[in-house]
Design brief:
Order of helices and strands of chain B: HEHEEEHEE
Strand order of the largest sheet of chain A: 2-3
Shape of chain A: elongated
Mean pLDDT of chain A: 73
Distance between the termini of chain B: 57 Å
Helix content of chain B: 25-40%
CATH topology of chain B: Alpha-Beta Plaits
Distance between the termini of chain A: 32 Å
CATH architecture of chain B: 2-Layer Sandwich
Oligomer: heterodimer
Low-confidence stretches of chain B: none
Radius of gyration of chain B: 17 Å
Helix content of chain A: 40-55%
Shape of chain B: elongated
Number of strands of chain B: 6
Number of domains of chain B: 1
Number of domains of chain A: 1
């Protein structure tokens, strides 16, 4: 939409993400805010389990992020971290749709696994 | 809960922060390598972006390069980045004005390409409105 509004001939997604310190801190806060305990292990309220295909590379990155975030009293699971990342991404939908389209076109045939998020 | 910090509260911020940065790249040479004074364009960019985000910042000149694919030449020049963190409603209101500024910049300073960056995407403008 912005490309059309500006009359741009081309739009190029730039590398970004939670691999820089400020991005990771913000993600950790979002996960902490989202997880709430109703007596047992903190979970994501109103979330339902659904199957989403995820590559091994992405799953490893998410698992590492969950490990980095963990400290006394706060142990998010990789699936919970992935779920919050997806929620943040949906909030930034226009830019993400473009990047997702580029990634999907480029990644046909990559090895995927299905994980349940919730 | 462990890990939860509201930075706005801690800092005593007056309003919710904006995470969406809009950056304009102001060149200093035309596509033939002829220099021009970018000062007025930087001033206009600061005014325009301030109307969108409440304030704007112009960075010190950076070394820039642009590859002219048609002529197979590399234009080396000083580039000034001017950015703001947008108010989404104000950006929507000012979109036409932003377009007019960028196209005028490209047309009047003889640019092969004018770029701006928003939400992690670089927009390249090559065909300018008349």
């Amino acid at each position: 939409m912005l490309a059309e509004a500006l009359g741009a001939a081309e739009s190029v997604p730039l590398p970004s993400g939670p691999d820089t310190p400020p991005g990771f801190v913000a993600l950790r806060q979002e996960v902490a805010k989202a997880l709430r305990s109703t007596g047992g292990r903190p979970g994501l309220p109103d979330a339902e389990r659904r199957k989403i295909p995820v590559t091994d590379t992405v799953w490893r990155a998410v698992s590492e992020a969950a490990k980095e975030m963990s400290k006394a009293g706060f142990h998010p699971s990789p699936a919970q971290v992935a779920s919050v990342i997806l929620e943040i991404a949906v909030r930034d939908m226009p830019g993400l749709v473009r990047r997702a389209e580029h990634a999907l076109r480029a990644s046909a045939g990559s090895k995927e696994r299905e994980v349940s998020l919730g | 809960m462990a890990g939860e910090i509201d930075f706005g509260d801690v800092l005593g911020a007056a309003e919710e922060g904006s995470a969406e940065r809009l950056t304009l790249y102001i060149p200093s040479q035309d596509r033939n390598g002829v220099a021009f004074d970018p000062g007025p364009w930087i001033e206009d960019a600061l005014k325009l972006l301030s109307s969108i985000g409440g304030g704007a910042t112009a960075m010190p000149p950076a070394d820039g390069a642009w590859l002219d694919l048609e002529r197979q030449t590399l234009v080396r020049e000083k580039v000034v980045l001017v950015y703001t963190f947008i108010d989404p409603e104000r950006l929507e209101e000012k979109l036409s004005e932003l377009r007019r500024y960028l196209h005028r910049l490209g047309r009047e300073t003889g640019q092969g390409e004018v770029v701006c960056e928003f939400q992690g995407v670089l927009f390249k403008i090559r065909d300018y409105d008349q």
